[in-house]
Amino acid sequence: MTRVAVVQAHAKLNLRLKVLAREANGFHFLETVFVRVALADTVRVRITSRGHALRVGGDETLVPAVGPAESNLALRAAQMYADVTGWPGGFEIEIEKRIPVGAGLGGGSADAGAVLRALQALAPEPIAGDDLLRIAASLGSDVPFLTSEATAALAWGRGERMLLLPPFPVREAVLLTPSFHVRTTDAYGWLDAVGTGEASSPAAIPLAALSEWDAMQPWAENDFEVVVTSRHPEIAQMRASLSRAGAMIARMSGSGSTVFGIFAQSPAAALTAGQSWQARVTGTLAEVVPPALSE
User: How far is CA 127 from the centre of its chain?
Assistant: First the structure.
């Protein structure tokens, strides 16, 4: 019986992120355009007879920031899958970290989505897509997209309502990650304090903007940028650096703190030199590879 699945858990970027009205229960409605990039954690799920284990390795500068196992989204995803289906009896999860933690790139959500994809591939009776979506949505607004095998999506609500999109043309992407982190709960609190999104509604985005970079450019925005930049001026400096280097889109991803640039041509080599942030060069994806299965 197949007992092991290995999945590449790709980071995401938010080309567009609008925070809309707040529900009575405190959750915010979102409108976002996701794309996946090549930067990925590697997630290995092994089925066992009982018990569970989580091991995190990889980039030694990232591992300490992952936090305790009991709050790890990947572990919670596996536990929820087992609770819903009664399978598996046990599992072991290994994560090789490459995605910066708490940086707006969806690293934890990508790991959770990878675990759900792995379990679906291994399960003797995979659960229905709607049930899988409900598990993913309960874990966070990025998890439904990162549980899919789409390279891009337009999403609403809390991320559970999605229009899966064909790939944008592959482009290089530069990710600039500063030394500070932005807690998502703090970013929402800053937005609530200024009332952003209270009167907003989803936009009528042209179809071309969901498949072509030039058409997407005027629609690329992030409601968190203003409030995060007011507390961390480095965000504006990073965006300016990317724009000077020729980025066609330069925005903050998620609630920060990473700022990304999408490039039609290779970015200037000087972009990464002598700055107070770490730069990673990656690229958008043409496809998402299914889980690799073995005994």
Answer: 23
Per-residue tokens: 47: 């089925």
Say which residues have a Cβ less than 8 Å from residue 71's Cβ, sequence separation at least 6.
none
- Cβ 73 vs Cβ 140: under 8 Å: yes
Summarize pLDDT for 160-199 with one digit per residue, the tens.
789 999 999 999 999 999 999 899 889 989 988 887 655 5
Question: Which of these is catalytic: 41, 111, 142, 223?
Answer: 142
d(CA 282, CA 173): 5
* Sign, CA torsion 39/62/225/25: positive
Percent of the chain with pLDDT strictly greater than 90:
74
Secondary structure tally for the chain: helices H, strands E: 8, 11
Please state the rounded mean pLDDT for residues 202-210: 88
CA pair distance 160, 144, nearest whole angstrom:
6
The string of pLDDT tens digits covering residues 87-110 is 999 999 999 999 999 899 999 999
Sign of CA dihedral 167, 135, 107, 231: positive
- 0.85 surpassed by pTM: yes
Stated as kind and residue range, the H or E segment containing 4 is strand 4-22
Cα 216 from chain centroid (whole Å)? 19
97 carries an active-site annotation: no
Catalytic residue at 18? no
Report yes or no: 248 and 263 within 8 Å, Cβ to Cβ.
yes
Which residue among the candidates 12, 18, 111, 223 is catalytic per the annotation? 12
> Which one is predicted more confidently, 132 or 202?
132
